Amino acid sequence: MAYFGNNQDNVVGGLDGRFFYGLRRTDDGELFFTKVDQMDPDASIQVNKPGDPTNNYSDFEQGVDFFEGRDQNHDYVYENLTYEQLRWDDRHLFYYINDEGELVVRINRPYTYPTGVSTDGLSAYNPSHFKVTVASGTNSYGTGNKFYLNDIVTPTLNLFEGQTYTFGQANASNNTHPIRFSITPNGTHGGGVEYTTGVTKLGVAGVQGAYVKIQIPVNAPTLYYYCVNHSGMGGQINTLT
Q: Model's pTM, two decimal places?
């Protein structure tokens, strides 16, 4: 195992790259970033996880970037290496995911997720399940009650043809807000009709066990999710091959 941490005197004395950034990608496609300010005397990070020392990354060097933690087949090069990419930078960077699902980097401008954390990194990752809740928010239709999917207000989703996705509506906030799909923005409120191909509905929105499930058909059009009873609560679904 290897750790690092520096006090303020060491950093001011000439170390390159005040901030250390580490990136890790899981096999499920999640990205995790860590950032260490070397002027924080309590800051430290574990470079290699416990395990067979022959699987350690042993060339770690202060101020030297490293981006080769996976090979051309996306397999780990060093099984124990905690972060697959290591970077040192004097700039204070803040990474976050916006409501459109885009990765944004800002310099010297902090960002705090409404829930306080993007993900704990410990819960099982399930890209096929969306926890649906309803709360006040703002989207392209204005301000009012909106669908939140996994705690993000009306995100644009990218769903793949042939895959099945579940929209769980067990949370009590879903009461009177059944979610549905349409090929028309805002669904029936926008003059469209409900899209039912590949859709399964179970239970009553807001009651334990309720969900709407959709298997995205081949050559499916762009879809939109909406509330049966209230206008402006939903968003867009891009269907990908």
A: 0.53
